[in-house]
Design a protein that fits this description.
Blueprint (H helix, E strand, L loop, with lengths): L2 E5 L4 H12 L5 E4 L10 H6 L7 E4 L2 E4 L1 H11 L10 H18 L5 H11 L3 H26 L13 H15 L8 H11 L2 H4 L14
Parallel strand pairs: 1-2
Antiparallel strand pairs: 1-3, 3-4
Helix pairs in contact: 1-3, 1-7, 4-6, 4-7, 6-7, 7-8
């Protein structure tokens, strides 16, 4: 059985996959696709993912794209520990919280969006950062409200066991930190993130611990 992850140190989506692989104790090789250098547009990577985005997980010859689909593939393929609850309603709750960042926030701040803001409207790096900070903050507020409303947050977002939503929330918090977003108004979210980062599966997957990452940002 071979598992290969095509990722990049700064990719929050690749971070999510690293965490899931670590939690399941899956041995894998990571191949870096340098987004800053445009390697995602090369012919070799386009053959893996015609969308030119990260990550891609290759497992025994099969290529899976999109981090949420990859997380669910990992969950379905490797049984322990479980990252999704048993009941349909609880699964839906976990997925819904995860998608606040995976589907609603993260897509708005990725490099191709920020590059478009620059090429079409001449928004410089400072303006692009302000854009990203805004959408991270909107996501932060939504996540905090959902956690409070559910009333199930303890050590992690849905109790005392890590679930798929925690992986998504950790990626969101790391991205917010990279863009220097004020997190002071989301105490419950912050506590859950801190608890996640005490786990080696989360901490070792951190973007700044990956090959190619700068020593400071």
């Amino acid at each position: 059985m071979s598992v290969t992850l095509y990722g990049y140190w700064r990719s929050l989506a690749a971070y999510r996959v690293r965490v899931a692989l670590n939690l399941k104790s899956i041995d894998y090789e990571e191949i870096s696709i340098n987004l800053a250098a445009g390697e995602q547009f090369g012919e070799a990577y386009a053959a893996l993912n015609p969308q030119h985005v990260l990550p891609v997980l290759n497992h025994d010859g099969y290529d899976i794209t999109q981090s949420m689909a990859i997380l669910e593939y990992i969950e379905d393929t490797w049984s322990a520990p479980k990252l999704l609850p048993v009941t349909s309603y609880e699964k839906a709750q976990v997925r819904a919280l995860a998608l606040v960042t995976i589907a609603d926030t993260h897509p708005l701040i990725v490099p191709r969006v920020r590059h478009f803001l620059n090429s079409e409207w001449s928004l410089d790096e400072s303006a692009q950062t302000k854009w990203a900070q805004h959408w991270f903050t909107v996501g932060n507020e939504a996540i905090e409200r959902i956690l409070v409303k559910s009333g199930r947050a303890k050590t992690y977002s849905f109790g005392n066991k890590v679930c798929l939503a925690d992986i998504a929330l950790a990626s969101h918090a790391i991205g917010a930190a990279l863009f220097r977003v004020d997190m002071s108004k989301t105490p419950l979210f912050n506590e859950i993130f801190s608890n996640c980062m005490l786990l080696p599966a989360f901490a070792n997957a951190h973007p700044l611990k990956q090959e190619g990452a700068p020593k400071t940002v």
